[in-house]
Design goal:
The chain has 367 residues and is of the alpha+beta class. It contains 9 helices and 17 strands. It has 3 domains: 195 residues, Jelly Rolls, CATH 2.60.120; 34 residues, no CATH class; 79 residues, Malonyl-Coenzyme A Acyl Carrier Protein, domain 2. The chain binds succinic acid and cobalt (II) ion.
Length: 367
């Protein structure tokens, strides 16, 4: 990728602050998917796909998976097919995402690819995501606006801004890329057949983090003792909850505390938790010795659907947490960063057993 500035400059001047158009960010960009292959993925149960059509001024939304025959009946213009999580199916998509590793992978969501014939798009809208919109085949006209008016078209099946006011517009060609911070209004319209690659970075809401963290904490909270009131006073109203009782319970609940370590463990598990439609295919059973032979010869890589992060000596993979021994840590961190490990001739026993277990779960594969 040609960023036209250092990643450091990008972070300090643009990331989460303002849009950036980068002409020819990927000078020789070659689509690694055809529109037919994208349609094929949209027929799969494991892919999350949508068709958005505009017919006689009305927006229509259909959710996948689709029957193949659906694609034969589409109009010539004004529709788009969008497929999420392309990186779970296509190795080249993971390579593309790796080019964005100047942003931590804890912020990464997925790669969405859309195909649209002339006029197609999802209308003017906001996203709660940071997104890099990379133009593949064809051209797309992008209109953007820093408007705060978020009124939506009534009764539309998707969120479309009612009063979109174009402030800037650009025609993106293959290899051009537009970065948009969250909540920045945008509208992409296909100019002829067009494929767009959306590299999305998630920004979880405070409420989502709180709800998930409280759930995590609930499973790990084990308070001792019973409510006790040896100092109980006579009450005029037996039905009244006394001020003393509220005070005692408030004091008991103050025993619920957490440290940054707990927040880190929660984040690692939450952020690597596979989405509900993701499954891992277990490979054919293999003895530990044979596994070590292949590890020494081929090395391993993360399965396309695996997500791995680390914090200190804690390693998180697909919602699970392991505390790695010191000697294994650099290699595990390398696996998390680069998604692969070159052949390892003499792994520590701990590392070999861990990788073996992950291989049996379908989390890592041989390269
Ligand atoms: C697209 O149509 O590919 C772009 C989706 C978006 O605007 O987020
Ligand atoms: Co968008």
């Amino acid at each position: 990728m040609k960023l036209t500035m250092t990643p450091q400059q990008f972070l300090s001047e643009y990331w989460q602050k303002k849009p950036l158009l980068i002409r020819q960010a990927f000078p020789d960009f070659d689509d690694f998917l055809t529109s037919n292959e994208l349609a094929g993925l949209a027929c799969e149960e494991a892919a999350q796909s949508r068709l958005v059509l505009k017919q006689r001024g009305q927006w229509k939304l259909e959710a996948g998976p689709f029957a193949e025959s659906r694609f034969a009946k589409l109009p010539k213009k004004d529709w788009t097919l969008l497929v999420q999580g392309i990186n779970h199916f296509v190795p080249e998509a993971v390579n593309l995402l790796q080019q964005f590793n100047f942003i931590p992978s804890a912020r990464l969501d997925d790669l969405m690819v859309s195909y649209a014939p002339d006029g197609g798009g999802v209308g003017p809208h906001f996203d709660s995501y940071d997104v890099f919109l990379l133009q593949g085949q064809g051209k797309r006209l992008w209109r953007i606006s820093d408007q705060t008016d978020s009124a939506l078209v009534k009764d539309a099946p998707l969120k479309i801004l009612q009063n979109f006011q174009t402030q800037q517009e650009w025609l993106l060609e293959t290899g051009d890329m537009l970065y948009l911070p969250p909540q920045y209004a945008h509208w992409g319209i296909a100019v002829g057949d067009c494929m767009t690659y959306s590299i999305g970075f998630r920004a979880p809401s405070a409420q989502e983090l709180a709800t998930e963290f409280l759930g995590y904490l609930q499973e790990r909270t084990h308070l001792q003792g019973l409510y006790a009131d040896p100092d109980l006073q006579l009450q005029t109203h037996p039905a009244q909850i006394s001020v003393q009782m509220v005070g005692k319970v408030a004091a008991m609940l103050q025993a619920i505390t957490w440290q940054n370590q707990d927040v880190a463990s929660f984040l690692g598990q939450y952020l690597t938790e596979p989405k509900p439609h993701i499954f891992f295919a277990s490979p054919q059973r293999l003895s530990f010795d044979k596994f070590c032979g292949r590890l020494a010869h081929d090395g391993v890589c993360l399965a396309l659907t695996s997500q791995m992060l680390f914090y200190g000596d804690k390693v998180f993979i697909n919602g699970e947490c392991v505390q790695a021994e010191l000697v294994a840590q650099p290699l595990l961190q390398q696996l998390a960063d680069a998604r692969f490990l070159s052949p390892i001739k003499t792994p520590s026993d701990d590392l070999a057993r861990l990788l073996y277990q992950w291989h049996q779960s379908g989390y890592v594969l041989f390269r």
